[in-house]
Amino acid sequence: WALSQDVSGCRLVQQVLDRGGDGTREALARELRGHVVEAAQNPHANFVIQKVVGVLRPEALQFVVDELVAASVAKMAQHKYACRTIQRLIEKCPKEQIAGIVEELLKDVYGMSRHHYSNYVMQVLLRHGAREHRQRVFDALRANLRLLGSAPYCLAVVSAALDSDRGAEALKLARAIAGSPGLMAYIAVIRHGGGAILQVLGNLTGEERLRALASLADQVEVLRASKHAATVVEVLDAHALQLLRSLALAGA
Question: pLDDT confidence of 252, banded at 50, 70, 90?
Answer without folding.
Answer: very low
